[in-house]
């Protein structure tokens, strides 16, 4: 098809062969093979060059369309193989809210041909999403399962959020004494199993029995209940980004109060788009 188009656009087979980067005998053989397939001549060749026959003219428009489609296909394959085009599904949680959207924005700017879907979910749900293939990338708690690839990207820690109007701040007493003296609201363990486990380990370490008086299914509601004076809450420090102005926060210390968030993916799903995202994330982290 390409030989037919080039021969039609140039006065001689010699010039068409040069454009196709092959020898003239090889080019002539391609035209002859096509003519054999059609069953009639496609060109009349003379001393001054070649001219399309009626059959050649009839087939030229289709040949051009086929060549253009093949060129578009090849160009798209190159874009996809370089990560410039495709689809990326990314999971994130509250702890990664400072980095995940920023990384996505930078990636979209660098690779506008890639469609990106961003899902807010717990670390456990993200891990299962990566395993099933529903997610390409997860911003989830470390350590990652051994069957998945991961790199750490940031750390977070627990804080106690309490109403600004309360007279006795957490730093006035030991964490265990303060927590025992105040009721807690919390994110339901089903919605935030990672946070529930982290808070439970911390409370066990400091020896603080706790009284949960209300649960909510999202962290914004938990913080709104704190702001309303219903109780205190143990939340990630990254929750400062969404906390109402009437909520104060105090950092909790100790090994059980801190954790690391990593970018997690499946080794057999390291597509060009996934690799491009990881490279863009590494550039953002270096800034």
Give a written overview of the molecule:
This protein is of the alpha/beta class and 287 residues long. The protein folds into three domains: 80 residues, Winged helix-like DNA-binding domain superfamily/Winged helix DNA-binding domain (Arc Repressor Mutant, subunit A, Orthogonal Bundle); 96 residues, D-Maltodextrin-Binding Protein, domain 2; 102 residues, Periplasmic binding protein-like II (D-Maltodextrin-Binding Protein, domain 2), CATH 3.40.190. 43% of the residues lie in helices and 24% in strands. The chain is built from ten helices and eleven strands. Strands 3, 4, 5, 6, 9, 10 and 11 form a seven-stranded mixed beta sheet that branches. Helix 1 packs across helix 2 and helix 1 packs across helix 4. The longest helix is centred in the N-terminal third of the chain and has 28 residues. It is rod-shaped, with a radius of gyration of 32 Å. The two termini are 50 Å apart. The mean pLDDT is 89.
Could you provide a short overview of the structure?
The chain is an alpha/beta fold.
Query: Which H/E pattern describes the elements?
Result: HHHEEHEHEHEEHEHEHEEEH
Please outline the major beta sheet.
Answer: 7 strands, mixed
| The first-level CATH class name of the largest domain | Alpha Beta
Backbone structural class: alpha/beta
Under the CATH scheme, the architecture of the largest domain is 3-Layer(aba) Sandwich
- The CATH topology assignment of the largest domain is D-Maltodextrin-Binding Protein, domain 2
Quote the average pLDDT: 89
Radius of gyration: 32 Å
Number of domains: 3
Count of helical stretches: 10
Binned, the helix content reads 40-55%
Total number of strands: 11
Beta-strand percentage range: 15-25%
Low-confidence stretches: none
Shape: rod-shaped
CATH superfamily of the largest domain: Periplasmic binding protein-like II
